[in-house]
Amino acid sequence: MTYAFNASYAACVILRVTYGKSTPTATDAPEIIVIHKMLMRPGVLLVERYPILKYVPGYATELEQWRREDSQLFHGHLDRVSRELATGKAGPSFARYLLENLSSHKLSDEEMAYLAGSLFGAGSDTTAVAIMVLVMASACYPKAQEKVQEELDVVIGRDRAPTFDDYNSLQKIEAFMLECLRWRLVTTLGFAHRALTNIPYKNMCILEGAIVFGNHWAISRDTSVYSNPDQFDPQKWLKTDGKIRNDLKFPSFGFGRRIYPG
């Protein structure tokens, strides 16, 4: 039930950012169904393991149907923003930015539709998971949550919401969020990388062209970097003066050329 609420909330937020959509989005809405298809775990499709299947007549029929559904949905949202622009009713959104800057980015309608759709797909389910982790950490470690609430009460109070101007004054909150992202990862493997050449590793060789995933979970449990890695402790991100450490990082959203676009 909690995840369903988070998924709905996250979808509403990312649809507002991407397309300016201000109406509620249910968990069984077409947009959410498309996201779940887009975010299937790597390797779930046989064609990923056996590329020759793409040449088998009829095999790709279902995949092509999904592609048409995605395209229809993405184009539908983009067309709606285009109509709103024409009537002066469009609010701020990523899609509006794309449509208003055609001469500078020179993207086709298809490219714009899928670019905006990728932003939506990348930012919805992952946001819901991150919120769930934060709620779980707060419930499991109430003492750490109390410190965060205390900082909010001192810096912000109870009469307004935080703004970006408060960012540098909320170090405990930043540490809490950093620890959430390390303690329970949003993506345990991140994006796929391709080996550009043969890579010797210990007594093995990763062949050129091989698909490689960085094991984020193992990285997050590296005891030479993170003390007591299985223990949730935001304090590990703070220096003695209470500021965020600049010598400690965690690749929550990937690394290299395939860093997470969301």
List keywords for this structure.
262 residues, mainly alpha, two-stranded antiparallel ribbon, 11 helices, 4 strands, 50% helix
Describe the structure.
20% of the residues are buried. The chain is globular. It has two domains: 2-123, no CATH class; 142-254, no CATH class. The protein is 50% helix and 4% strand. It has helices at residues 2-19, 30-38, 46-49, 61-87, 94-100, 102-105, 109-123, 125-140, 142-155, 171-183, 216-220; strands at residues 193-194, 199-201, 204-206, 211-212. The chain is mainly alpha-helical. Helix 1 packs across helix 8 (125-140), helix 2 (30-38) packs across helix 4 and helix 8 (125-140) packs across helix 9. It contains eleven helices and four strands.
Morphology call: globular
- Category from helices, strands and their pairing: mainly alpha
Any low-confidence stretches, pLDDT <50, length ≥5?
none
The counted number of beta strands is 4
* Assembly type: single chain
Query: Whole-number average pLDDT?
Result: 84
Helix percentage range? 40-55%
Radius of gyration: 22 Å
What separation lies between the terminal Cα atoms?
25 Å
Q: Topology as H/E string?
A: HHHHHHHHHHEEEEH
Task: Characterize the biggest β-sheet.
Answer: 2 strands, antiparallel
How many separate structural domains?
A: 2
Proportion in β-strands: under 5%
Strand order of the largest sheet: 1-4
Layout of SSEs?
Elements: H1 2-19, H2 30-38, H3 46-49, H4 61-87, H5 94-100, H6 102-105, H7 109-123, H8 125-140, H9 142-155, H10 171-183, E1 193-194, E2 199-201, E3 204-206, E4 211-212, H11 216-220
